[in-house]
């Protein structure tokens, strides 16, 4: 829960302070625990509104992750690195190649692995262990093949399907027979995950706005 993450963070900060004051140096184990807490937040910011003391743990988490990177204590995870590479890419050809590798090959391989090895993971999936720290490799593999990744995804990103990949232009989608210069407009940001992986979600939203007679600025 957000409350537990806040308590854990405050205890770790206190541990850091104690170790620095006693000249012991910050324990590597504490950095690992610090990263574990930071990794358990999706940065949705939904905890901020009901929080009685108005702590936005999403912002706290981003600061924690930045501190880990600054101090060189951020763990390298191939999956995270590959995902961030694709989501941060801006060149259309790079995006196409990364998507082909991850979705065209990676997703298919994962779905096949689920069918092949699912019986072997029933014990773990039937009674999952506590997620404290980094799980052993065996547990990570079983978790990865526990459930199939989506299939039947569009072959291209939303921008590629709409042929608006040129970053020098700001595309505006509107039904000409229903709109004018004074028609209400919205700025639509589909999110990099939605746009790059699940482009049908963004296209469905844009279609809804089109039928509603709204100008959509992408």
UniProtKB/TrEMBL annotation:
Highest taxon listed in the record's lineage: Eukaryota
Matching InterPro entries, A to Z?
Helical_ferredxn
* One example GO MF annotation: iron-sulfur cluster binding
Q: From which residue to which does any coiled coil extend?
A: none
Q: What is the lineage of its organism?
A: Eukaryota, Cryptophyceae, Cryptomonadales, Hemiselmidaceae, Hemiselmis
Q: What is this protein called?
A: FAD-binding oxidoreductase
């Amino acid at each position: 829960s957000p409350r537990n993450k806040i308590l854990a963070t405050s205890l770790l900060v206190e541990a850091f302070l104690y170790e620095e004051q006693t000249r012991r140096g910050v324990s590597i184990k504490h950095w690992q625990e610090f990263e574990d807490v930071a990794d358990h937040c999706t940065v949705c910011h939904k905890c901020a509104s009901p929080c009685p003391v108005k702590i936005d743990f999403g912002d706290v988490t981003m600061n924690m992750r930045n501190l880990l990177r600054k101090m060189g204590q951020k763990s390298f995870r191939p999956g995270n690195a590959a995902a961030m590479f694709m989501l941060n890419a801006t060149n259309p050809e790079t995006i196409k190649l990364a998507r082909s590798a991850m979705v065209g090959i990676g997703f298919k391989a994962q779905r096949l692995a689920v069918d092949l090895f699912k019986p072997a993971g029933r014990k773990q999936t039937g009674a999952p262990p506590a997620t404290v720290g980094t799980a052993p490799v065996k547990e990570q593999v079983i978790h990865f093949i526990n459930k199939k990744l989506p299939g039947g995804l569009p072959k291209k990103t939303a921008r590629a399907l709409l042929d608006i990949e040129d970053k020098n232009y700001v595309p505006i989608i509107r039904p000409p027979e229903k709109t004018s210069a004074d028609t209400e407009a919205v700025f639509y940001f589909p999110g990099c995950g939605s746009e790059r992986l699940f482009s049908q979600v963004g296209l469905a939203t844009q279609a809804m706005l089109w039928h509603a007679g709204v100008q959509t600025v992408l």
